[in-house]
Amino acid sequence: MSHYEDRIAQWRRDPQGWWMDAARGLDWSRFPETAFDAGQGPYGRWFPDGTLNTCFNALDRHVLAGNGARTALIWDSPMTGRVQRFTYAELLRRVAKLAGALAARGVGKGDRVIIYMPMVPEAAMAMLACARLGAIHSVVFGGFAAAELAARITDATPKAVIAASCGLEPGRVVPYKPLLDAAIGMSAHKPDFCLVLQREQALAGLEPGRDFDLLAEEEAAAEHPCVDVAATDPLYILYTSGTTGKPKGIVRDNGGHAVALHRSISLIYGLKPGDVMWTASDVGWVVGHSYIVYAPLLAGITTVMFEGKPVGTPDAGTFWRVCAEHGVRVLFTAPTALRAIRKEDPEAAMMAGHDLSRLDALFLAGERCDPPTALWAAEKLRVPVVDHWWQTETGWPITAGFREWGLFEPRPGSGGRGSPGYDVAALDETGHEVPRGQQGALAIRLPLPPGCAPTLWNAEDRYRQAYLSTFAGYYDTSDAGMVDEQGFVWVMGRTDDIINVAGHRLSTGAMEEVLASHPDVAECAVVGMADSLKGQAPLGLVVLKAGVNRDEAQVAKELVALVRERIGPVAAFKDARVVQRLPKTRSGKILRATIRKIADREDFAVPPTIDDPMILTEIGEVLAR
Ligand code: COA
Ligand code: AMP
Fold this sequence. Notes:
Elements: H1 4-13, H2 15-23, E1 36-37, E2 45-46, E3 51-52, H3 54-67, E4 71-77, E5 82-87, H4 88-104, E6 112-116, H5 121-133, E7 136-139, H6 146-156, E8 160-164, E9 166-169, E10 172-175, H7 177-186, E11 193-197, E12 211-213, H8 214-220, E13 229-230, E14 234-240, E15 248-253, H9 255-267, E16 276-279, H10 286-298, E17 302-306, H11 318-326, E18 330-333, H12 335-344, E19 361-364, H13 371-381, E20 385-387, E21 399-400, E22 417-418, E23 424-427, E24 439-445, H14 460-468, E25 474-483, E26 489-494, E27 498-501, E28 504-507, H15 508-516, E29 521-531, E30 535-544, H16 552-566, E31 575-578, H17 592-599, H18 614-624
Parallel strand pairs: 4-17, 6-7, 6-8, 8-11, 11-12, 16-17, 16-18, 18-19, 19-20, 30-31
Antiparallel strand pairs: 1-2, 3-13, 4-5, 9-10, 14-15, 21-22, 23-24, 24-25, 25-26, 27-28, 29-30
This protein binds coenzyme A and adenosine monophosphate.
The site of coenzyme A has 27 residues, from strand 9 and helix 12.
């Protein structure tokens, strides 16, 4: 039985008191006297007069409390066949020395550090080392191309870059260093230095005077103490897709973030110190920041960091092997990963032989979970499956099930009910709430709770414009869906041109910018079409310039290669088609929603504003080929 209503009422009665109580779960160098100051920032700031250090809370305080021998991080890498364990004391020592190495080369409070690393323990250490110094990290996912990395270097103007020599994808080694060198070459800003983790699968050439071996620097450095920061100082910047090619630098502060994440571990995931949590994501995404690195460590639990894929490394039983071997209590992954496993092993025969008795909940996020996938997982694992909805901007779940308060009866397809701090409403175009059970734009009544982005890096106006200007008094999530009679939220899809491919957030606008840069392309449209494995897959339609008379298949091949080169393999852009014309309204707006419906073979009404309905038939014919 769930006590949700009683408990959420306590938050509603006194939101600031509720969060002050949550703040007591952390160690502060100055405990905040004020919970929230509505006068600061676009919608206010949490704990404005508190000071603390996030790394101290994630590592030192556990060691000081006598728990240094507890396992903090287990690295499990089927890509290399290795497993490595770090106690809290060991992790603290590595992080303090890495912080010392960064400080010795001039990195201090407020400096930015780009981290470009695959799923290796040093990625988490690098994040924590920055936090220790009060430096601001910005992790860039390894599947992005050099140009995307360059855009982030230009925007964040980092003093240093911490990189690995390579990443490992099934069947191929991805050398990171050439991508990093190219990115620094392209960027308007040049970092002072780079620390490179040399992995034996592809050693990197180091540029004398600029690049240094990470492990050697760390070894030679002295341990650095934690630097006090204001709760409102930035902990990190995480770039995420916006509606244009220019990514949004989501800023996370130190205090609100630590409070919200620490509280969420018991509230939502039902975990206590010493338990094992495995979040099968990547440190390059927000899910990885929050639930591979910060939340588990803040709460003194053991986190599993996995370098592999749900299938093919070596098989669809890998997830179950990892859960059994490390005694995982909570597994958190994206529905795509389960669809990939189910496709290869529909009967879950590969669970056999793995002791999953300690696993007691599965959490899903990153994309909408189709009910059959949730039901399959619940049936095979015999544990509660909890879908929860959130975004890079919020940093932790907007809606969820709450194990501390008792889980709700399963409702596959729903993301649960609002977490404390999030008052979710479905609004119509004029900003009024639609009746319960009807679709609308999902928005959160201001203020946002601790942990949510207070602003965008160097772009406060863009923050106001993107999130606060649509509906007065609300944060616009850019998701559409409904809130039902009981307050459960059902997220159906985005209202902007963001698509979600294998749980990865991508901008179709950014892909269109790349296609439009091809010399033969006159105009183009990219839409996300339904994909049974990845949820969505990008589809590009291009119209060639007058007079261009080239082989269409060759042009399509070039376009696919161009998106991979400019955005990266993670865009998973594999399908480009040449069409004669694009469907548009009389005012010239491309009818992307209609194109998507044709691609998905859904029924659609011919838009009354369409310029020439015949184009829809032409598009249908091209897509049927
Ligand atoms: N570095 C370099 N390349 C990467 C990469 C990385 N870190 N991550 C992905 N890529 C590449 C892949 O190798 C692939 O390349 P290819 O086109 O040469 O095959 C391409 O980017 C697309 O990757 P992806 O969309 O992940 O597809 P996939 O076929 O490799 O794997 C799944 C499919 C479902 C197994 C995989 O997407 C998955 O595990 N998804 C879970 C998603 C997730 O954890 N999301 C995080 C949010 S919670
Ligand atoms: P990201 O910022 O990469 O975490 O992506 C956030 C987007 O993913 C959200 O705005 C949603 O569109 C989608 N999303 C994340 N979790 C869920 C969920 N549980 N259900 C439906 N959509 C989700």
